[in-house]
């Protein structure tokens, strides 16, 4: 079986693929100090608790945090006796190479999302990913990542506002009942919610105008359904798009005889 590991700046997702479906998915906080042994204790405990028996023989990793990759490599080698495939490294082949400025290093999460979206929905897409940053990835007609937009993430913006303005509390992200808030929390929630609805709509519209062809908007990340309430910002939503992309890239490397 294949263990897919998607490490973001805030959370890390582990998912087991049996060749047909994902049999289990878990999420933990991303910590650069976590050792290979700690990863295994955490993962094996959850597998035992859920009575999951999985013969993991292959591992693929996507990480936006370079410092965790070494320990994840050791984890794969020590406990599953395999050399993991790491997206973004020269030895990892992509179905379609990114077409960006020479010398540009594209984040592995954006490469994985592009591969996944093209596999599921075809080309001419905007992939909106709600993470620590809110990213907009443009996927061409042939599946190539051709650029995009990076904006501060929703929770990142809220946390920054809370830290920089002493009188403003930390608030949860939710759709407010009305735009005009009558207390501090309601004002902040309205500003974040409607501000991001406007950011998403305007950014997507400007990308479509510049791209010059009809495009569909695909969303992923836990906050996407919240921002789609009654506004139809997205044509499709896939919570596990990135994990699916890891399977796509791994299979492509197998098909090319690279594993």
Automatic annotation (TrEMBL):
A monovalent cation. Ammonium or potassium. It is found in: Cytoplasm. One of its GO terms (biological process) is coenzyme A biosynthetic process. Pfam families: Pan_kinase. The active site is at residue 109. Keywords: ATP-binding, Coenzyme A biosynthesis, Cytoplasm, Kinase, Metal-binding, Nucleotide-binding, Potassium, Transferase. ATP binds at residues 6-13, 132. GO terms for molecular function: ATP binding; metal ion binding; pantothenate kinase activity. Substrate binds at residues 107-110, 184. Catalyzes the phosphorylation of pantothenate (Pan), the first step in CoA biosynthesis. This is Type III pantothenate kinase.
